[in-house]
Amino acid sequence: MKPNKAGQGRFSMMEMFISALLYVTFVSRCLYLVYKASLDKEDMLSFDLHPSWWFGRKMDDSDYEWRYWVDYYSNNLPWYLGHALLGLAINCHLEKGRIYVNIAFSLVSLSYILGIKQLTFLICNVCLVYLTVVLTRRKALVWAVSLMLLSLLNLQGTATFIMKLCYPDPTGTRYMMLVYAMSICNLRLVSLGIDMIDEFDRTDNVESFYRVLAYTLYLPTFFSGPFTSYRHYITKMSVKQDTLTWTRLKWFISESFLLLLWWSLMEISLHYFYSSALQQEEYFLVSADNMTVFGLCFVQAALFNLKYLVLYGVPTLFAELDGISMPPRPCCFLIKHTASAIWRFFDVGLYNFIIQYIYKPFGGSKLGLSQQVLTMFLCFVFIGFWHGTAANIFIWVLVNFLTMFMENMHKHLIQSRQWRNVVVQFGEDAAYRLEVLLMTPIGVVSLWSMFVFLGGRNVGFNLYKKILKNAHLELRVTVLLLSYCHIVFSRCLEDGSFLRCVRDLMRLKRRHSDANSSDINKKSKHKH
Fold first, then answer.
1. Where are the domains of the chain?
2. CB-based contacts of 397: which residues, under 8 Å, 6+ apart?
3. Checking DSSP bridges between strand 49-51 and strand 58-60, what pairing results, if any?
């Protein structure tokens, strides 16, 4: 068996297919258990369900975030289409005035969508950061002002001020809009402040305010992201855009159909899996069997993944049509086996922000392990503060920090001289399996923290009691075995070995079929 590129062993074909089979069987079992629980508890969930259009099935309406964004895009899609058409027209007839027209259209559309008072408040935030940069040119003060503005969402007294700013707001829609806009705008404020200071240090030029305003008020990504840096936005806006070609139009149509497919899949799933409503029922979480609760969390994670494909897909579609390249779409984190991989590939925009403006400026991994751990801690403190101050957010951030720390220790271990001795003594293949085995408990803890983030503290606590604390030995071994299979399956997908094995099997089967047909032809000729 040949070593892979990292010099480690590989799994055998039998191991790969057994791990894939067990993992897929487990996922199917989770889906079935949640579907069955949704049928059995439908009467108990009547408050969170409502009749819908899908073959008489009721729909889980308790995921407020999904319902909010569906309503938002349904009501405001004409503004996004208007932005796209205006951008295409500017590229053809008014290329130099592109950024001014974008500002004007954003001001009009956001005044209608968000409200004049709320938009004025956000522009004041931008002005405050801009003045901080122009007058002081200190990155520490940019961070201080940005964190102060972010604290308006997390402190009780200031949160009341934000609610009063949106009055009258009987449905709470404008308050939610302002919260989302302030959250993503805060990342942009840090980005433009630090990038402007770096630009001034290089060229001694102060960035124009209208370019700052164009970046912060850019309509497609204003409310939901994904995040792109100020430097990236200005660079792309300064490049001449091509006119609409048949190739770009085909891309836009195909991406639109893909978004529609994800939206339809999410809507249909909510008619069969009432995971969001079930996880809010304390009685069900206590009384349900262990695997049903685990399956509930698993399905909720899958739906969260699907939700953000749509949530980030819509603004990405219109931004890419403008010629502004966006971060890749969120990966399926249910096939990622490390917390670091989930952070790197799910919300790529947020990950780039953390790396560019926190991790690297504070030294990262260049100044030794202790500095790296401290920098990681600062990154997760900001992530927790940015997401909110709820108890489940605190637990999620803390456990993620610990799992990332353990993953780093695992990485240092397999790069050590002692580990090379293990490889020499037992062989690359055995050492590779031992490495995965050591990752297994870390994977379980990482998965649990994700369930706490998605389901809340009660869901995480009940899952901890059922799966980890009070479970019998057989269940704990089963969970570790499934985590091991998950890691094996994920690694084989990442390095392409699983797909290569599938192709080799298909090629072998084709050769066997051709050989049989050749033998049959020879026998028939011999008879004749």
1. 13-62+250-495, 94-238
2. 380, 381, 383, 384, 387
3. antiparallel
